[in-house]
Amino acid sequence: MSLAQLNREIVSCRQCPRLVTWREEVAGTKRAAFRNQEYWGKPVPGFGDPQARLVLVGLAPAAHGANRTGRMFTGDRSGDWLYRALHRAGFANQATATARADGLALSDCYITAIVHCAPPDNKPTAEERSICAGWLDRELDLLPSAEVVVTLGQLSYNQVLRRFGPAVPKPRPRFGHGREVPVDEGPRVIASYHPSQQNTFTGRLTEAMLDAVFTRVNEIIGG
User: Fold this and answer.
1) Which residues contact 205 (CB under 8 A, 6 or more apart)?
2) Are strands 188-192 and 180-181 parallel, antiparallel or unpaired?
3) What is the pTM of this model?
4) What span, in angstroms and rounded, lies between the C-alpha atoms of 16 and 39?
5) CA of 199: how far to CAs of 76, 81, 86, 193, in Å?
6) C-alpha distances in angstroms, 178 versus 89, 153, 159, 209, 211?
7) H or E element that contains 129
8) How many structural domains compose the chain?
9) 111: β partners
C-alpha cells in the first residue's frame, strides 16, 4: 500500500459517530467569514514528502481550518505559525497555507495528526484517539525514511510514544517543549508545544522556541 492509497481510506472513514456528526455539521453551517466557501467536511489526510526524514504529528483538524480546507494546518492561526517556521527551516517552499491549491510544497517533511476529524472544542475523546491510532501506525509504517518525529502537544507526544511501545526508554520521559526521546532502531521523537492560539497568544510558545525545534531537527538529519 502507498500513502496515497492509505489517505483515500482515511478520507472515507466513518468510525466515530460523534466526529462524523460534528465535522459535517460544521461544514454545513459554516463560519460567516467563509460562508461562500465549500467546506471539506471529511477526515483530513496527511500530506507531504513520502520520503520525508521529518514527520510532524499534530492533534486534529481545526473546525474552520483543515476541516474547511482539507489539508492539515491550513487556513488557521496554528498553521500560520507552523508554516512560517517550516519555511524558515527549509522544509516548506512558502510561509503561508490558505488552501489545497495555494502552491505549498513540503520538502523532506510529512504532516499528519493523531485524529483525522475535527472534534468538538478541539477535544477528541480517549476512545476516538484510540480508534484513530491505527491510521497513525500505518502512516508511520509507510514513512520508512523518517529520522525525527516532532509531536505538537502532549496528546500527540503520548500517542507517538505509545506507537513505539517497548522501543521507548523506561521510565517514559515526561512531556516538555524540546524534550528528545530516542527510539530503539527508530526515529528520534522531539516534543513541542502545539502552535495553538492558547499557547502563542500567551507567550508559552514563541517563534524562537519553535525555530529551535526545527534547528535541532536539521542538526539531526544533516539539513
Assistant:
1) 81, 177, 192, 193, 194, 195, 199
2) antiparallel
3) 0.97
4) 19
5) 14, 11, 18, 7
6) 16, 11, 17, 8, 11
7) helix 126-141
8) 1
9) 47, 56
Please say if the pLDDT value at position 206 is more than 80. Answer: yes
Residues 6+ apart with CB under 8 A from 105: 92, 93
Supply 136's cell numbers: 497513525
User: Within its chain, how far is the Cα of 179 from the centroid?
Assistant: 18
- Cβ–Cβ under 8 Å, residues 82 and 195: yes
The residue among 19, 118, 16, 8 whose CA lies nearest residue 60 is 118
Q: In which element (H, E) is residue 204 found?
A: none
What is the C-alpha to C-alpha distance for residues 118 and 116, in angstroms, rounded to an integer?
A: 7
pLDDT tens column, 79-131:
999 999 999 999 999 999 999 999 999 999 999 999 999 999 999 999 999 99
Query: Which CATH number characterizes residue 75's domain?
Result: 3.40.470.10
Q: Which domain holds residue 21?
A: 3-221
pLDDT value at position 223?
65
Q: How far is CA 125 from CA 19, 46, 89, 120, in A?
A: 10, 20, 33, 10
